[in-house]
């Protein structure tokens, strides 16, 4: 395995092949980090595992000061937007230096990091003739890991905040009032993003394919932090991983069934994106909501990936170092 790495507040390049076909960019949630969120013991799977299984993908991981949303004296109304703007700016600068302006982008985002990605894409749509718009249009695949998209009302979002905030060892209880304020912005993002997806559906060259991974196990006595119903958008595939909210983004090694489930999706996407744009984004054969459950075993929180049920209908605000 590679030497230990610390989290950075930047866009970190974890792997770069000689001739990359696609950029895979990881975005952590609040309270996490661009290395620690994806690391179990000494295994940082985007750095240590993924390059061997998808060798022609460049691997990036975006880091930002996630705790400022919770631990400051006030929560800024623009905090989520600023993180999103910084993500876009980091990708613009990196891709210009790497001569990768036209390379397809795949996002992999955990928890509230998924809403940072969604906000970035919504923002890019507004910037006509700006390099950020080109970055947004280069995003063709997104894997969301326990990202809340279906909160029904403000009370739901406030309750989500209380659950996630309770995972902090050093929680200042006064932040709960701030979480109410932040929830308005989060709910707005979650409502606008499906509209953005529908717009992209009408453009074959920029249509986006997404998969939602949901948590199968409870976190302590709080149950699921992000429920199955809230963690996906109708009409898109949903897979459950046999893990709780904190652990579903960490894998023990190449034989971890959870890793294999995520890898299957990412590898299929990268292989498809290496085709011509028209072929890579040809329409899906099935319509309507697809909910696939990957049932768990007992080894390493493993999965029986051959068993599934298909058909029918069926932020991270913060947590301590153990949840990264």
Strand and helix order: EEEEHHEHHEHHEHHEEHHE
Total helix count?
10
Instruction: Output the radius of gyration.
Output: 18 Å
Q: What is the end-to-end distance?
A: 19 Å
Low-confidence stretches: 68-78, 169-179, 284-324
How do the strands of the widest beta sheet line up side by side?
A: 1-5-2-6-7-8-9-10
Number of strands: 10
The largest β sheet comes out as: 8 strands, mixed
Assembly of the depicted chains: single chain
Mean pLDDT: 79
Beta-strand content bin: 15-25%
Q: Label the structural class.
A: alpha/beta
| Helical content class | 25-40%
> What is the overall silhouette?
globular
Give an overview of the whole structure:
Helix content is 35%, strand content 15%. The protein has 10 helices and 10 strands. The chain has helices at 45-48, 50-53, 68-71, 79-97, 113-126, 131-138, 154-165, 175-201, 257-273, 277-280, and strands spanning 11-15, 22-27, 39-40, 43-44, 57-62, 105-110, 139-145, 209-215, 237-241, 291-293. Strands 1-5-2-6-7-8-9-10 form an 8-stranded mixed beta sheet, sandwiched between helices. A hairpin with a 2-residue loop joins strand 3 (39-40) and strand 4. It is globular and about 50 Å long. The protein starts with 10 loop residues before the first strand and ends in a 31-residue tail after the last strand. 48% of the residues are buried.
Describe the protein's topology.
Elements: E1 11-15, E2 22-27, E3 39-40, E4 43-44, H1 45-48, H2 50-53, E5 57-62, H3 68-71, H4 79-97, E6 105-110, H5 113-126, H6 131-138, E7 139-145, H7 154-165, H8 175-201, E8 209-215, E9 237-241, H9 257-273, H10 277-280, E10 291-293
Parallel strand pairs: 2-5, 2-6, 6-7, 7-8, 8-9, 9-10
Antiparallel strand pairs: 1-5, 3-4
Helix pairs in contact: 4-5, 4-6, 5-6, 5-8, 7-8
């Amino acid at each position: 395995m590679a030497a230990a790495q610390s989290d950075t507040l930047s866009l970190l390049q974890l792997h770069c092949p000689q001739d990359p076909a696609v950029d895979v960019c990881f975005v952590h949630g609040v309270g996490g980090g661009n290395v620690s969120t994806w690391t179990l013991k000494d295994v940082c799977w985007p750095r240590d595992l993924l390059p061997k299984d998808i060798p022609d993908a460049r691997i990036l991981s975006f880091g930002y000061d996630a705790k400022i949303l919770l631990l400051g004296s006030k929560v800024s109304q623009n905090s989520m937007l600023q993180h999103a703007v910084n993500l876009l700016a980091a990708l613009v600068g990196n891709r210009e230096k790497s001569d990768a302006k036209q390379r397809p982008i795949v996002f992999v985002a955990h928890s509230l990091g998924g809403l940072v990605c969604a906000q970035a894409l919504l923002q890019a749509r507004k910037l006509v003739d700006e390099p950020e718009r080109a970055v947004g249009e280069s995003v063709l695949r997104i894997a969301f890991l326990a990202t809340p998209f279906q909160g029904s009302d403000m009370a739901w979002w406030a309750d989500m905040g209380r659950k996630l905030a309770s995972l902090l060892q050093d929680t200042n209880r006064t932040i709960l009032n701030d979480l109410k304020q932040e929830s308005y912005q989060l709910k707005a993002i979650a409502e606008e993003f499906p509209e953005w997806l529908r717009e992209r559906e009408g453009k074959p060259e920029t249509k986006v394919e997404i998969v939602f991974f949901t948590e199968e196990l409870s976190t302590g006595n709080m149950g699921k932090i992000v429920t199955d119903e809230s963690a996906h958008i109708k009409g898109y595939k949903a897979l459950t991983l046999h893990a709780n909210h904190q652990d579903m983004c960490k894998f023990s090694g190449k034989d971890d069934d959870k890793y294999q489930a995520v890898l299957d999706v990412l590898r299929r996407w990268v292989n498809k994106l290496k085709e011509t744009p028209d072929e890579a984004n040809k329409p899906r054969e099935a319509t309507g909501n697809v909910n696939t459950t990957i049932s768990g075993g007992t080894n390493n929180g493993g999965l029986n990936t051959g068993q599934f049920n298909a058909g029918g209908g069926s932020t991270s605000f913060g947590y301590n170092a153990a949840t990264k």
